[in-house]
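Supplementary notes for students who missed Thursday's class. We covered one full example, reproduced here. Read the sequence, then the structure, then the short commentary at the end.
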Amino acid sequence: MATKRKPLSRERILETALAFTDENGIDALSMRKLGQELGFEAMSLYNHVANKDDLLDGILDLVLAEMEPPDPKGGLPAIRAAALSAHEALKRQWGSRYMQRCRCPAGCPTNRPPRGPARRPRPGRS
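Structure (token representation):
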């Protein structure tokens, strides 16, 4: 009897992609390799992520969701500390070489507008 595979979901794909990039680096990530990691053909992934850019956006959102926003009462020093912390986390995650290749002036891996919940404005904050 064949073993039943765990079904694909966007969350499972993104979590596996993040773990893959932690181990192998962002440059090693491909839809084919990710599919192999999950035990599916790469084309199956496209039912859950639109393309590799969408996959990278999702990974970025997972990383950003782990970061705490600055204390609004902490003023500019708290904002600066949070920004430096976020930069260091992204640099650790994707490496300085990838950050330097970035297309946007802020040094992040995407220049598309925010899509994920971790990049949406939080209630009470502008």
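Commentary. The mean pLDDT is 79. Residues 8-66 form a domain with the Arc Repressor Mutant, subunit A fold (CATH 1.10.10.60). If anything here is unclear, bring it to office hours.
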